[in-house]
Design a protein that fits this description.
Largest sheet: 2 strands, antiparallel
Oligomer: single chain
Structural class: mainly alpha
Order of helices and strands: HHEHHHHE
Number of strands: 2
Strand order of the largest sheet: 1-2
Distance between the termini: 12 Å
């Protein structure tokens, strides 16, 4: 079996995700700067409680999701996946559809919904809850023969090593 047909090990997937985290931080910073400029520096209200507008949170989510969807649709790789020589594909090795990319990004991002628990749990407990949910999402790959995480199963995609 050549390397192109081998499923991607979990450690390689997580390493690529760390690289992509750097890209995501840069995207969030640029969007934040543009929104601060557009609102005259009044984007986020601080005081007794910090208030981040819901439209801004959704905008950041859409822009970050667009990065992943566009990358997966255009060659199957994000910037972080390139140095680790992995790509997302259909089970036949082809480029994933727009629907698959959207399902994949929505299921992968679903633990972010737990951030709504922050007023109840507090910031630290909420962040640990989100991290725990993501650990479960990826732990599925340890037991799947094709090393698919939960979002891959939902979208019928997989990560493969490339030569």
């Amino acid at each position: 079996m050549n390397a192109a047909n081998l499923p991607c090990p979990l450690w390689r997937r997580l390493a690529a995700l760390i690289y992509d985290l750097l890209i995501v931080v840069a995207i969030v910073m640029v969007v934040g700067l543009l929104c601060q400029l557009a609102t005259g520096g009044r984007l986020i209200e601080t005081g007794a409680r910090t208030v981040v507008p819901l439209w801004y949170q959704w905008l950041q989510g859409v822009v970050v999701a667009a990065y992943f969807v566009a990358s997966w649709r255009r060659g199957g790789q994000t910037v972080g996946m390139r140095p680790w020589r992995i790509r997302v594909s259909r089970d036949d090795g082809g480029t994933i559809s727009l629907q698959q990319a959207v399902v994949r990004v929505l299921v992968a991002a679903a633990p972010m919904l737990l951030l709504a628990l922050e007023p109840l749990l507090g910031l630290h407990a909420t962040l640990w809850t989100v991290l725990g949910a993501w650990a479960l999402w990826f732990a599925v790959a340890l037991f799947d023969p094709r090393r698919r995480a939960l979002h891959d199963l939902a979208a019928d995609t997989e990560l493969r090593r490339i030569e």
